[in-house]
Amino acid sequence: MAKNITSQQKDYSQWYLDVIREAKLAEHSPVRGCMVIRPTGYAIWENMKAELDRMFKETGHENAYFPLFIPKSFLSREAEHVEGFAKECAVVTHSRLRSTDNGGVEVDPTSKLEEELIVRPTSETIIWDTYRDWVQSYRELPILINQWANVVRWEMRTRLFLRTMEFLWQEGHTAHATESEAREETEKMLEVYRTFAEDFMAMPVITGVKTASERFAGAIDTYCIEAMMQDGKALQAGTSHFLGQNFAKAFNVTFQDADNQVKYVWATSWGVSTRLIGGLIMTHSDDDGLVLPPKLAPTQVVIVPIWKNEDERTQVISYIDSFNRELRNAGIRVKLDMRENYKPGWKFAQYEVEGVPLRIAVGPRDATNKKLEVARRDTKTKEIIDVETVLETVQNLLVDIQTNLYQTALKRRESLTSIAQSYDEFKELLDSKGGFVYAHWDGTPETETQIKEETKATIRCIPLDNPHKTAGKCMVTGNPSEQMVLFARSY
Amino acid sequence: MAKNITSQQKDYSQWYLDVIREAKLAEHSPVRGCMVIRPTGYAIWENMKAELDRMFKETGHENAYFPLFIPKSFLSREAEHVEGFAKECAVVTHSRLRSTDNGGVEVDPTSKLEEELIVRPTSETIIWDTYRDWVQSYRELPILINQWANVVRWEMRTRLFLRTMEFLWQEGHTAHATESEAREETEKMLEVYRTFAEDFMAMPVITGVKTASERFAGAIDTYCIEAMMQDGKALQAGTSHFLGQNFAKAFNVTFQDADNQVKYVWATSWGVSTRLIGGLIMTHSDDDGLVLPPKLAPTQVVIVPIWKNEDERTQVISYIDSFNRELRNAGIRVKLDMRENYKPGWKFAQYEVEGVPLRIAVGPRDATNKKLEVARRDTKTKEIIDVETVLETVQNLLVDIQTNLYQTALKRRESLTSIAQSYDEFKELLDSKGGFVYAHWDGTPETETQIKEETKATIRCIPLDNPHKTAGKCMVTGNPSEQMVLFARSY
Fold first, then answer.
1. Which end of chain B has less neighbouring CB within 10 Å, N or C?
2. Does the pLDDT of residue A124 top 70, yes or no?
3. Is B145 within 8 Å of chain A by CB?
4. Is the pLDDT of residue B388 over 80?
């Protein structure tokens, strides 16, 4: 166990914060609830962005940028939307400071705004107000736009990456001529998120539909990907909303269809955020620090040279040159750590904490024998390989680590997934084992609330490919249930 | 001249806005002074970001992210800084809205913040407050960090891209152990900006130092790149600041040096913004719309097929396939416009307005003859070429357009640059010809202010490679002057 990192078993929450601190991913800022994303953490976000952006563009979307501020009156246009966001927002009321006698500054009361501005908690309102002028005819549809932006929600209880007052995200906002096309888009983007989570983050997810009480404020249907963290808790990792015509009606966005009828436009929105970094950490990392899937690791391979004198140094460097270039040319993200004021052992420990998937150590004897030592971060295993095979070995190991991380997470989820036939069994399972629990529910918000209040577990989703899609009776009320739904305690 | 675009000669300001609207780059938002950056405009920004980001990383910088909000008290820590930014900032005072009886929302007075938060106008204060904890010893220096972010300055007179209340930018913030290293960094990043402006934007710039009155609030020296727009006005396109120890002292950021002395850290900051898009438009575009340098054009080549019937359509598409892939595989950004509900002539006009550097038109006769027509946006010239030479021709033309745009802008600047030997000549030159005027100035802010008030011209910079570095007498006061400085009216 790395020093300065509390073990998962002892205190999972503290372990999470310790890993973030020791791997230098992020830290709290002097502004309550806001975080500073440090270079290593931001580099992970850049890799996530690059892959997601590519997937968005491959599915026909373009990026654009809408204002940070939303006029207060816009929020009230969609009744449920304002209900969902008005209680936690940053309100700009003035536009100027003035000096005070003691050398400080104070708000200049003469700069009070006529209408307050809200720092966007999400951009449906400002975007649909804009779309009104963009859409006249069915020929201008669909509009397939994504935005990379910062948003602010005035959360009281924050946790780095998982829930912060300001966070970075992408929000897709699309406009369609028909309901079916909008529904198709909603599901397509959910599938993009699933693919990204599983193939890049190595984080298995359940796709499903949220219950009415967990829906996005203003949506008809909210789809989600739900992941399981190592402590058995669920993490909502991304959402895709079918918004129906709610925002089109609120902002009067209509179009003339091919049949010459004037109709309201159909909408979707979908987003993932820096919360994914929290999910990534809590899916793979261990008591020694961060563990990163190779596809998202800023550094995939670190090379640590070992030498005692100048002759050895020259020999080792020249040897490393011979394969370092080969790895880089193959597109592998390699870092060579030549720093002289840190010892190899210190470097080993540091890269372990930082989660670099592969470490190559090379000393003078390796140079002579044309060998090198390759160590995996995930399994902590090492092997000595011939330098001629380095590229192939590294490529295979990176694939293997990616697969192994996914399989390990999947097995964990399977072992922590249960079925409850009764409410007693349900409660017992949550307390003894945790994890995901499938159970029958009568479909009413009242029962859902009762379960939440009594057990702290929520319905994570009604899974799309539900393995327990057989009718039964609600575990609480005994009323009919069409299928089991997925419960868990969650972040 | 494109319909809907006012000619430059008639009204340059209106021409600028017309080009932005017709090329669908951006538009005003319902929030005063904020803009919506539309997909085409944002794609240009993405290309700019990609190149700049690569250049920053090649010079050893990493990206990070700091909070959007700055505690009010932070601004007052550096005396000049608060003076520069307090008068134009968005102030967050509350964290909640509540419903009103008439179905609207109002600010909830019980949510008033203890300390107001300022939406960052620039991030020196929050970043230097963070650096304090990151730096203990000289071993942790330098810190070379860049941030891509949105910032807000409460401008009263706004103009799309050039001056908006919210804009997108990058801000580099570096920390160094010595003054010389920080000064070197300041100049290095200025050189990165110069290279980017000239090699990618095809926009020649003068590098120089700002006078005291034009310095960044809190800087010891502000370096800048100054470009000339087609109407002869100057545009400050990027700045790089040597901040000395001002922010280190304000936020108490010290380090233990190799000599065991505790010292204040030396700082730089540097930034360019979406203002560059305004500069790009005003450097190259014409009365027919946008003109884009190939290196930054989202679409470099558009292929417009022409057919009259299904047979011709099949023939033309198959023919286009044969070279489209070749162009794409070579990394050229090609768009094939297969839309059937728009005529070729309409498409030609649209891509001209949107500034696509090269247009390839292909009809059935071209397919038979293995020819195609290539039209340049910059010179409006067309040529018929053999399909076998398409890749080479397109590559050469793209290079040629890039060079031509730069040379044209450079010649314009040279023809609009003058030397004034007297104040009368200076005023006459500004009114008759405009452009850049070199003249002697006595180095005092009083004379600078007098010139600004009387002529609306400002000192753009004291050029680094000054072609007029000979001593003389101030054109206004007759007092000694070491060298001529660069004047212009500006945006």
1. N
2. yes
3. yes
4. yes
Q: Where does chain A hold its CATH 3.30.930.10 domain(s)? A: 25-72+121-284
What is the overall mean pLDDT for chain A?
A: 96
Give the confidence band of A1 by pLDDT, cuts at 50, 70, 90. low
List Cβ neighbours of A411 (8 Å cut-off, separation of 6 or more): none
Among A42, A247, A472, A174, CA closest to B170: A42
| SS3 category, B244 | strand
Whether A130 contacts chain B with CB within 8 A: yes
Classify domain A417-488 at the CATH class level: alpha beta
Q: What is the pTM of this model?
A: 0.97
Tell me the percentage of chain B whose pLDDT exceeds 90: 94
Please indicate whether, in this complex, the C-beta atoms of A74 and B30 are within 8 angstroms of each other. Answer: yes
Are the Cβ atoms of A67 and B117 closer than 8 angstroms? no
Q: Decide if A237 contacts A194 (C-beta within 8 A).
A: no
Give the CATH number of domain A301-397: 3.40.50.800
Report the alpha-carbon distance of residue A59 to residue A172 in Å, rounded: 12
What residue type is assigned to position B365 of the chain? R
pLDDT surpasses 70 at A281: yes
Write out the CATH class of domain B25-71+121-284. alpha beta
Which DSSP string corresponds to A320-374?
HHHHHHHHHHTT--EEE---SSS-HHHHHHHHHHHT-SEEEEE-HHHHHHTEEEE
pLDDT at B221: 98
The answer on pLDDT for B1 being more than 70 is no
| Inter-chain CB pairs, A–B, below 8 Å | 194
In order, the DSSP letters of B59-127 are TT-EE-B--SEEEHHHHTTSHHHHHHHTTS--EEEES-EEE-TTS-EEE-GGGEEEEEEEEPSS-HHHH
For CATH 3.40.50.800, the residue range(s) in chain B are 301-397
Q: Return the exposure string of B315-345: e unless at least 16 CB atoms fall within 10 Å of the residue's CB, then b.
A: bbbebbeebbeebeeeebbbebbeeeeeeee
CATH 3.30.110.30 intervals, chain A: 417-488
Q: CATH class for domain A25-72+121-284?
A: alpha beta
Looking at the DSSP bridge assignments, the partners of residue B239 are: B224, B271
Residues of chain B with CATH 3.30.930.10: 25-71+121-284
